[in-house]
Amino acid sequence: MKKAWSIVLSTALSVGLLAGCGSGGGTNNNTNGAADGGNANAGKPKSVTLKFFIGQPRFKQQYEGYINDFVAKEKAEKNVDIKVQLEMPNSDNAPQILKTRMASNDAPDIFSLHAVNEAPSFYKAGYLEDLTNQPLADKLLDSVKPSVTIDNKIVAVPMESLAWGFLYNKKIFADNGITPPTTLTEMKAIVEKLKAKKITPFLLSYQEAWIPQLFLPLSVGALVSTDHKDFIDKMNKDEGSFAEMKDMFNIIDLVNANGTDKAMEVNGDDGAAAFAAGKAAMWIQGPWFADTILKSKADFDFGVAPLPVNDNPDATRIDLSTSTALAVSPSSKNKEYALDFLNYVLDDKTSSAFYESLKFNPVAKSHTFETYPWVNDAMVYVKDGKSYQDPVMPQAVKDEVGKALQSYFVKQMSQDDVIKALDKAWKDFNKVNK
Questions:
Q1: What is the value of pTM for the model shown?
Q2: CATH class of the 10-31+40-158+323-370 domain in this structure
Q3: Rg of the chain's alpha carbons, rounded to an integer?
Q4: What is the pLDDT at residue 389?
């Protein structure tokens, strides 16, 4: 049911002529015009290798381009040839692969991780370099900085700052006089109205476990914000149970019963293409797929709205989060250049275009691009106080719920089975991390 793949890119860029080689007799590297090679960087370039581990293969082209620009910059400014090994496993497999690498002392120099779910445990284990005194620290927006700060230390560079819930096809909604629901009852009415018009309500894409996993933060976030505010604290003390979150099955069951066919055969990229093609009116997915959706149909008009999980309209809120962030391993043998890259990610001249190409939100003071329409949709709710910070839960629990909900969808697990599996995953996490 899963697929794992990685892309390894090894490249070395050479800019300019090396001293003593080719026509010019070594004077081409002499920036001050002195015949004796006055450039401090003149001479044979130093060769280093940087290992990148980024679990976002759908952005391969953007990352490769930006990394290549960085390699050229380091060659021009420091006369260093950087060979790059870029590994991009999919989101299902990346967390476990990375943890295995870290535990076996095979850490990448630069790696991606989830700022909310993974950074605290990585920090506790000593896997995150302190970036507080790096130039990038002063460039972060004040609203974003706390999401990558632990013990008053900046430990990562945020890539995706998110305002999300579910995606909806604005044309289908407008053509049928539908507005985003504020309660589960309203969502049920929308489903019936769409079915009456022979329109499939939901796009289902469950081949990758991380996608059905999305129900968890949306449900827990909504319920912790309202009726179960102490749930996470109780779970951290082995005093709670996901039985308190059983309301989440109301929306899960509604979506599963009114979705597209062959869900277990459809991955995220396939889902994005199907959604752009109008195969369904809604998709329980975040705007991180915006680039993939728009590659399928450039003029596709979609919006972001909060997902209702019960009939309390106050629980229908937007999830605010920083997900993917980039960090440097303290054990990196080429830490100087790894830190150079993280600073380049927030470079005053190039960073804005890079983030815009990824369809990410602004995170730095130098980011001048306009926010996207779907971001503006979500921010209407945020400004109205209808939002919550992404709930902090162990990554092990999120991994477990993805697999469990796949099994639940194909009727291999019951609701009680799912609850027991999640309770056990959290308790097992507590045992290891006390």
A1: 0.76
A2: alpha beta
A3: 24
A4: 87
